[in-house]
Amino acid sequence: MRGMCYSDDARVPLPPISGGAADSGDLVLTAADGNRFAAYFARAAAPTGAGIVVLPDVRGLHEFYKDLARRFAEAGVDSVAIDYFGRTAGIGDRSEKFEYMPHVEKTTPGGVRDDVTAAVAHLKTKDGGAVKALFTVGFCFGGSNSWNQSASGLSLNGCIGFYGRPQRSEEFVGKMKSPLLLLLAGADAATPQETFHAFEKRWPRPECLTRCTSTKAPRTAFSTAALRSGRKPATTRGGGCSPSSKTGARPERSFDLRSQACPSSV
Questions:
Q1: 33, 177, 29: which is closest to 114 by C-alpha?
Q2: First to last CA, the chain
Q3: Could you tell me if 197 and 253 lie in one domain?
Q4: I want to staple 234 with a disulfide (CB 3.0 to 4.6 A). Which of 59, 151, 177, 212 is the partner?
């Protein structure tokens, strides 16, 4: 269970649906270093022009994240969920039988970046949706992986992370360019709120950072409510969206997946 955001039998709640998913299925992508890795695409029946790369927790391309890709498509966002372990485990099963930790320990930020780059390239093609605005979203291990893409040079419109660990992103802070959204659970014992406050102080573009914290919720309750509502996650259990005092971002409009601007200007 180490590092998992959800149990193996968890499934993504249904969000408000705007048009359903037109198509979805397994995909094999190739990164710049030649790594062939598993991915899962979902095309929106009523696309908004936005696309998103889903970065899973430590289990890699578990069924939960395939389900999440479909949910994004149903909300009008073309999506690709990726696996982390093509370099060490090849393309294969990522169910509860998969021993993921030995492979997690062999991942590198550069490898994740290259795989995200391949997923972004797919989303820009006609088959991927020819999207105009690009985002990443990640959970736990994938949360900080998502934030790190702000420094990838991909000119992303936003990098969203549920419960990432700021210490895994510290080396990239000075190079970060894309807006960040930090979605946090106040009752998350693994990462104290003070850690995020320190991270925010180092963030070079305060107008492009928004932190949403549910003051009482544990990890799974917080993100489940966010996914179900399709809107501000901080409504869970009485919490509030709490942008840094430097940001000036309006909480109820922290990130719009159709926008190409910083959170404070949408």
A1: 33
A2: 38
A3: yes
A4: 212
Residues 95 and 199 in one domain: no
Place of tokens 């409510």: 225
Cβ atoms within 10 Å, residue 117: 18
Q: Domain range spanning residue 38?
A: 24-131
**Are 146 and 252 contained in the same domain?**
yes
Question: Is 6 domain-assigned?
Answer: no
Q: Residue 51: CA atoms inside 13 Å, Cβ hemisphere, count?
A: 26
CATH number for 242: 3.40.50.1820
Tens-level pLDDT at each residue, the chain (266 residues): 445 554 555 555 555 555 566 799 999 999 999 999 999 999 999 999 999 999 999 999 999 999 999 999 999 999 999 999 999 999 999 999 999 999 999 999 999 999 999 999 999 999 999 999 999 999 999 999 999 999 999 999 999 999 888 999 999 999 999 999 988 876 677 777 788 888 888 887 777 888 777 555 444 443 444 444 444 333 222 233 333 433 333 333 344 554 444 433 22
Read off the pTM: 0.79
Provide CB contacts within 8 A for 110, sequence distance 6+. Answer: none
How many domains are there within the chain? 2
